[in-house]
């Protein structure tokens, strides 16, 4: 035996066996034809009986079932109770030895007991405010019963629920309902992660939908009593989603009933369980007094997202969890397109790209960078990331650009035709595009398998009527991935004349080489290029310093709204970065914003986006990308100074705009009044720098809707005069959990950096800080971490406070603790002092005894 070699071989073995690898995939050796589940609900001792019809696909295979935290009461094969010697139980499951199994189809029966009231991790069957609910994606079903809990094992479910709750729901169609008992049959085979059960004292807001083939579908949104008055918007959004999926993708709903349930304790946003979507109540309930315009827009988008999963995720699912972006990237792409169609397309695109840069580019620049399709993980819950979701959606958008709108529709038709009812891979997905378009997508596939954001450098030249654009692409190394091959990048380009007219129609250039030139002939003047229109690829565009683009010109003239906004953002970033290093506000930027404010033709929502300055985190990222270490205090001051300069220069115009954009009449969440409000509030934010918060206080006092009330509250807090408004708001809303979440968050994001920590320390003492509720925990902690200079205090006290709370949450809810640990993912950006303080907190987390697998993987990856 080898000893004393500097590491513990046993530990290494465990480490390696904990890592799951794509290359290890093996099909399951049994087909699960049918499963019957009988639940007898009890908070402390729920009985779950499962009967599964299993057909062996390979001779003499042992039967492996996943199972965690279950008390096994019975196990039988074809009615014969197994002897203890015929199976092996462990912490993670159960293996029935091959000798105990018949060679032909057999019935496996198990009975287990679980305790939903003790389930604080909110995975599997748990309780929220006295109501039973489930969350099974990704691997929660194994906490309900012994089962092959993997997405490629699909079965028809027949579920009976017995319990004393008035409403008992599961997937599929109801086949029997009586007091204390309900039976549900789902005719569509599905993986266990789509199973759901809900039981409680709920009321429904109901409606119906007639599908394109004339079938009537009952629609219900189930909520706690009292919340039914806040469901109308979500129900209408659901109907719009159903219509859109029929019209745009030809996809019809496939059950007689579609249920949505709102729960207050939920780790994520929502979940697409077949026929029984479960939502974080935050993303269902809306009323003008309690929800903001952006809440309404998000609710519509999330309702659509979960509904669209019915085809992209449920009818066609993933073979294994490495393929998660197959369902998520496509479904995000679909919900983004839906919102773009329901609202203002270009504004939606700008919002999506801003979110992509804020979350995914940030992730890709740091130690957590991973490919949209990772090839290994320890805990799959850690891979529900911006890269899998948002970058996954960008990849679908690029495919659409490469094959065109009709080519995309043809490919999707083929995808549904070929793969309906299957569990698929990224290879299957790309193959339908190859087969339907005739294109070779082998190089394109690197977008799925390679991590990192490509940097695209551009230079240009004009001679004798010929204009040349030369691009160079480079993707930096990322954890575990060294040199990267060139990607296939669609670059949408326009050329403008010196008066701002389009000289050509937008052209998609296809870059496939590390360095590549594109030539435009027959031009009478040197054009102004508009590159990467609509953000046609998720890359960082860098201009050759010899010929920087005339951003002010593009901001004034570009016919592509995305690139117009982008030019303004580039100017804002350039000037604020210079100011953070001691420079002054760039007069050409200040003038360009003045012109925009006075340009009555621009859409208000678009204008509002142009007036919003980049966040402090984005400025820090820009400095880091430019090779400088960001100073959070200097960034905060520079951003404030730039806003003050804009307000001083354009006070009259901003004030006039603020008055002109007041919306009269009762509140409507529609895009047009919402756009006006957003412009009005963007003006308010700038004016706050010079009016001491007076306008914001007046608006706070007068507002009849949450959009204005909350924005005004943020501004008075930021102006340092918010205490009275915070108290008023708390008095008014203390009984409303969703509104109180906003109260916790806004005072931390908006407060002066040097007060953020003391405020957070005070807020954790507030009796309303129910830290076991994920929404409340996130509101306070993410609100604090979003106060960039407050979180990054140079004494490290912000980091310590945050890490202490992660460690406190981890034993109860590892999933949320792990997700929120990403506040530390940017450590490498900062100066050595902050780096070592952040790393020290990560090391303290990593070394904590009994740490969850979730948080342990995250802290280890961040430490590198
Ligand atoms: N599939 C859901 C997201 C989701 C993932 C995991 C969850 O619990 C661990 C819950 C929801 C979606 O994309 O909406
Ligand atoms: Zn999803």
UniProtKB/TrEMBL annotation:
Stated family: Belongs to the peptidase M1 family.
Keyword Metal-binding: yes
Key words, A-Z: Aminopeptidase, Hydrolase, Metal-binding, Metalloprotease, Protease, Zinc
Iron-sulfur among keywords: no
Protein name: Aminopeptidase N
Domain Peptidase M1 membrane alanine aminopeptidase: start-end pairs: 233-446
EC number(s) reported in the record: 3.4.11.2
Cofactor: Zn(2+)
Domain Peptidase M1 alanyl aminopeptidase Ig-like fold: 452-543
Occurrences of domain Peptidase M1 alanyl aminopeptidase C-terminal (ranges): 550-863
Catalytic activity, reaction form: Release of an N-terminal amino acid, Xaa-|-Yaa- from a peptide, amide or arylamide. Xaa is preferably Ala, but may be most amino acids including Pro (slow action). When a terminal hydrophobic residue is followed by a prolyl residue, the two may be released as an intact Xaa-Pro dipeptide
InterPro entries, alphabetized: Aminopeptidase_N-like_N (IPR045357), Aminopeptidase_N-like_N_sf (IPR042097), PepN_Ig-like_sf (IPR038438), Peptidase_M1 (IPR001930), Peptidase_M1_dom (IPR014782), Peptidase_M1_pepN (IPR012779), Peptidase_M1_pepN_C (IPR024601), Peptidase_M1_pepN_C_sf (IPR037144)
GO molecular function: alanyl aminopeptidase activity; metallopeptidase activity; zinc ion binding
One Gene Ontology term from the biological process aspect of the record: proteolysis
Organism expressing this protein natively: Thioclava indica
Domain Aminopeptidase N-like N-terminal: 52-188
């Amino acid at each position: 035996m080898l000893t004393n070699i500097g590491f513990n071989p046993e530990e290494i073995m465990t480490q390696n066996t904990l890592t799951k690898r794509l290359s290890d995939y093996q099909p399951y050796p049994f087909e699960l034809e049918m499963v019957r589940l009988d639940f007898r609900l009890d908070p402390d001792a729920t009985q779950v009986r499962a009967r599964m019809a299993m057909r062996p696909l390979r001779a003499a295979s042992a039967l492996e079932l996943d199972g965690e935290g279950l008390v096994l009461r019975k196990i039988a094969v074809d009615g014969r109770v197994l002897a203890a010697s015929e199976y092996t139980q462990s912490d993670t499951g159960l293996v029935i030895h091959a000798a105990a199994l018949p060679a032909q189809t057999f019935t496996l029966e198990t009975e287990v007991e679980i305790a939903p009231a003790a389930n604080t991790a909110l995975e599997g069957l748990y309780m929220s405010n006295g109501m039973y609910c489930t969350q099974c994606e990704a691997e929660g079903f194994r906490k309900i019963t012994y089962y092959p809990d993997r997405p490629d094992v699909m079965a028809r479910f027949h579920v009976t629920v017995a319990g004393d709750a008035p409403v008992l729901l599961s997937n599929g169609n109801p086949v029997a309902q009586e007091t204390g008992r309900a039976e549900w049959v789902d005719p569509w085979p599905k993986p266990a992660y789509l199973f759901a059960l809900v039981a409680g004292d709920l009321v429904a807001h109901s409606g119906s939908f007639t599908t394109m083939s004339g079938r009537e579908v009952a629609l219900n949104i189930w909520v706690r009593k009292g919340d039914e008055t806040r469901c109308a918007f979500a129900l209408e959004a659901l109907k719009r989603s159903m219509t859109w999926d029929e019209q745009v993708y030809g996809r019809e709903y496939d059950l007689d009933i579609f249920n949505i349930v709102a729960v207050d304790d939920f780790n994520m946003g929502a979940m697409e369980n077949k026929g029984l979507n479960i939502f974080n109540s935050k993303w269902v309930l809306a009323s003008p007094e309690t929800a903001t315009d952006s809440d309404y827009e998000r609710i519509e988008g999330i309702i659509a997202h979960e509904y669209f999963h019915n085809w992209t995720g449920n009818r066609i699912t993933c073979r294994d969890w490495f393929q998660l972006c197959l369902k998520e990237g496509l479904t995000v792409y679909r919900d983004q397109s839906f919102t773009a169609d329901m609202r203002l397309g270009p504004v939606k695109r700008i919002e999506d790209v801003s979110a992509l840069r804020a979350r995914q580019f940030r992730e890709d620049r740091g130690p957590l960078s991973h490919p949209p399709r990772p090839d290994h993980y320890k805990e799959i819950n850690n891979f529900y990331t911006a890269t899998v979701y948002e970058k996954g959606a960008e990849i679908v958008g690029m495919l659409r650009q490469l094959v065109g709108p009709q080519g995309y529709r043809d490919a999707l038709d083929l995808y549904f035709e070929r793969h309906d009812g299957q569990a698929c891979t990224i290879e299957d997905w790309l193959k339908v595009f190859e087969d339907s378009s005739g294109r070779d997508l082998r190089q394109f596939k690197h977008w799925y398998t390679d991590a990192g954001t490509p940097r695209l450098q551009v230079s240009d030249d004009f001679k004798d009527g010929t204009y040349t654009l030369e691009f160079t692409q480079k993707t930096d190394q990322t954890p575990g991935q060294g040199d990267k091959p060139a990607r296939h990048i669609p670059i949408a380009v326009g050329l403008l004349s010196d008066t701002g007219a389009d000289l050509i129609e937008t052209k998609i250039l296809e870059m496939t080489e590390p360095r590549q030139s594109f030539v435009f002939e027959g031009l009478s003047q040197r054009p102004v290029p508009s590159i990467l229109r609509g953000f046609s690829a998720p890359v960082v565009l860098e201009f050759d310093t010899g010929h920087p683009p005339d951003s002010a010109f593009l901001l004034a003239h570009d016919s592509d709204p995305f690139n117009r906004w982008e030019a303004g953002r580039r100017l804002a970033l350039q000037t604020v970065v210079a100011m953070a290093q001691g420079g002054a506000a760039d007069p050409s930027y200040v003038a360009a914003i003045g012109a925009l404010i006075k340009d009555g033709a621009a859409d208000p929502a678009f204008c509002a986006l142009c007036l919003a300055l980049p966040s402090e985190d984005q400025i820090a990222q820009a400095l880091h990308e430019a090779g400088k270490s960001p100073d959070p205090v200097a960034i905060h001051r520079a951003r404030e100074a730039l806003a003050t300069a804009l307000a001083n220069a354009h006070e009259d115009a901003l004030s006039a705009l603020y008055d002109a954009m007041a919306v009269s009449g009762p509140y409507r969440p529609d895009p047009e009044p919402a756009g006006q409000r957003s412009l009005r509030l963007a003006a308010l934010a700038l004016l706050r720098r010079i009016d001491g918060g007076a306008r914001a206080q007046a608006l706070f006092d007068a507002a009849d809707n949450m959009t204005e009330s909350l924005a005004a509250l943020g501004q008075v807090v930021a102006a340092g005069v918010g205490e009275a408004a915070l108290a008023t708001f708390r008095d008014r809303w203390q009984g409303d959990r969703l509104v109180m979440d906003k109260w916790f968050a806004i005072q931390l994001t908006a407060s002066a950096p040097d007060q953020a920590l003391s405020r957070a320390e005070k807020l954790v003492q507030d009796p309303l800080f129910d830290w076991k509720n994920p929404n409340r925990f996130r509101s306070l902690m993410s609100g604090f971490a979003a106060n960039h200079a407050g979180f990054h205090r140079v004494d490290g006290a912000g980091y310590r406070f945050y890490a202490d709370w992660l460690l406190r949450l981890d034993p109860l809810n590892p999933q949320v603790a792990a997700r929120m640990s990403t506040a530390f993912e940017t450590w490498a950006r900062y100066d050595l002092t902050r780096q070592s303080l952040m790393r020290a907190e990560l090391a303290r987390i990593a070394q904590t005894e009994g740490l969850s697998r979730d948080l342990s993987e995250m802290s280890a990856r961040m430490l590198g």
